[in-house]
Specification:
By secondary structure, the chain is an alpha/beta fold. It has 15 helices and eight strands. Strands 1-2-4-3-5-6-7-8 form an eight-stranded mixed β-sheet, sandwiched between helices. β5 (about 130-135), α4 (about 140-145) and β6 (about 155-160) form a beta-alpha-beta unit. The longest helix has 27 residues, at about 1-30. Mean pLDDT is about 85; it is low at about 285-310.
Length: about 525
């Protein structure tokens, strides 16, 4: 049994390391010339990637703008598609995104983008008559708005953010208002799996302006984010750019998606290594966590001799629902958490802080079970919660998406961690001791708690018009994060028998996720 366990652990470790090595080789291989510069445009110091084929005689230029909560690196696949036309591509980080310092606001993003494009023209880096303005989501809306005032050759707007309250889009969800007339030579793209309201408002940019020489396309089997890695999007953008810039009609092909496959392979490798790393950090070995025969079992550190019983599930679900709705209503009229200076992450942190405090108050009679007998588990959980995300974010930064923790982001982590800790502590308290429920039941119940809270947030956004649209856009990624985070918290809880250690582990992970994903204000 011991030899078999060791063999499985060795195979897992070797597989994880091989996946990371193979992934790194695939992700970093590129035939393009790529450089990073800082463009100072009227005080907006935008960190910018420049991509081309290595020729000094480019046939034109593209300014490619990312969306809300994204960054320049995630636009690389599309940028390389434009570069294959022998165009020089400029990919800036918006204020508060990636490595460009904040503060971020929609108005400042537009001002800085406008200054950025005009600065490139003044410096002779681009010729507006042979330049395409392109963008995704927020960047698509910015491309349309900037092109209305700068005489560029054409526009490629990929799933542009709605700018008018039509087709079921609430005014509170608009990030820009007063849209200009759609510029000439505009291509607008949508994904077939996007909400119909988003597709209809995108179509309106072309059909609502009969004088515009434009085109609207729906890319089949695509979501809002998958458009960034879709070869059909690259083909459409290349064909439109070649037509507008009067380039040779020969199809240049699309960039390889092997770098994307390499990035995903490396992520899988890191996740394979995460389990053994957690067990070693917490002082657990496969031998010590092996199941003993029932007749010979004795209490271990993951099974307290006098466990506190878990609260009744039905009562807890009602409490979470009632408290969540009440807090969302409160935040509609008064949100004091802007001091966190994390765009819409402050709303999420404030919501979890108030929800955690309410739940802890309702179950104050068992608060004593949170405190560990020793501080060692807390230190081990905190160490693991910092090291694992740094590894993941470093990998993402090397491959597919700018995810580096800048100084401004590090400085916001402690306050966010303190804010979200009460909810995670309450969640551990409500789930009860690890052996009170099976691992699957704990996972599903913990996710159910969060789903109820998330439904309340959606009520606030869609019914009360709180305007926190980014939380809706990030919902799929937050769901994946919650699944991984909750699984890790259960490993910590089982390994330490400390609910506070598990809560601290989860709070640090969520704080790190927030400062990486949400723009800095």
């Amino acid at each position: 049994m011991k030899d078999r366990t060791k063999a499985r652990s060795a195979i897992r470790a070797v597989s994880g390391i091989l996946l990371c090595i193979i992934g790194f080789v695939l992700a970093r291989a590129t035939p393009f010339r790529e450089a990073t510069v800082i463009v100072d445009a009227d005080g907006c110091r935008l960190v910018t990637d420049i991509i081309d084929l290595g020729s000094d005689a480019a046939q034109g230029s593209v300014v490619l703008l990312h969306g809300l909560a994204a960054n320049r690196t995630i636009m690389t696949y599309l940028g390389r598609g434009f570069a294959l036309l022998n165009l020089r591509v400029f990919l800036p980080d918006m204020p508060g995104h990636g490595r460009t310092p904040g503060p971020f606001s929609f108005a400042r993003a537009e001002t800085c983008t406008n200054s950025f494009v005009r600065q490139l023209i003044v410096r002779g880096a681009i010729d507006p008559t042979s330049t395409i303005l392109a963008g995704h989501s927020m960047g698509g809306a910015l491309a349309v708005r900037i092109a209305a005032g700068v005489p560029v050759a054409g526009v490629v707007a990929i799933s542009p953010a709605p700018m008018v309250a039509t087709h079921g889009v609430a005014a509170s969800l608009l990030i820009f208002g007063d849209p200009p007339p759609t510029p000439a030579n505009s291509l607008v793209l949508s994904g077939s799996w996007e909400p119909r309201s988003v597709r209809d408002t995108a179509r309106e940019l072309i059909s609502g302006n009969p004088a515009t020489s434009g085109k609207y396309l729906v890319i089949p089997h695509s979501t809002h984010v998958s458009l960034l890695f879709d070869p059909d999007v690259v083909h459409a953008a290349q064909s439109w750019s070649a037509k507008v810039l009067k380039l040779e009609a020969n199809a240049p092909g699309v960039p390889s998606r092997l770098p994307l496959a390499g990035s995903l392979a490396g992520l899988a490798g890191i996740l394979l290594l995460a389990g053994p790393f957690l067990r070693e950090t917490l002082g657990l070995t496969p031998l010590r966590t092996a199941v003993e025969p029932k007749g010979n079992r004795s209490p271990t550190k993951e099974e307290p001799q006098s466990p506190v019983l878990a609260p009744m599930t039905g009562r807890v679900l009602v409490e979470i629902a009632a408290a969540s709705v009440a807090i969302v209503v409160l935040l509609r009229f008064w949100n004091p958490f802007g001091v966190f200076q994390v765009f819409e992450g402050d709303y999420l942190a404030g919501f979890l802080l108030l929800l955690g405090i309410a739940l802890l108050f309702l179950h104050r009679n068992v608060l004593g079970s949170l405190w560990p007998a020793k501080t060692g588990p807390l230190l081990a959980a905190a160490f693991a919660a910092i090291v694992l995300p740094v590894l993941l974010y470093s990998w993402l930064n090397l491959t597919i998406s700018e995810a580096w923790l800048t100084t401004a982001r590090w400085l916001r982590m402690p306050a966010l961690c303190v804010a979200v800790l009460p909810y995670h502590a309450a969640e551990e308290l409500l789930l009860g001791p690890h052996r009170a429920r099976s691992a699957k039941t704990r996972l599903m119940l913990g996710l159910a708690f969060r789903l109820i809270a998330w439904c309340a947030l959606l009520i606030g956004i869609l019914v009360l018009h709180n305007g926190e649209i980014l939380l809706v856009l990030l919902a799929p990624y937050l769901a994946v994060f919650c699944l991984l985070q909750r699984t890790g918290m259960d490993v910590v809880r089982k390994g330490t028998s400390s609910p506070l250690a598990a809560a601290l582990f989860g709070a640090i992970l969520l704080a790190g996720f927030c400062v990486i994903v949400f723009p800095i204000t």
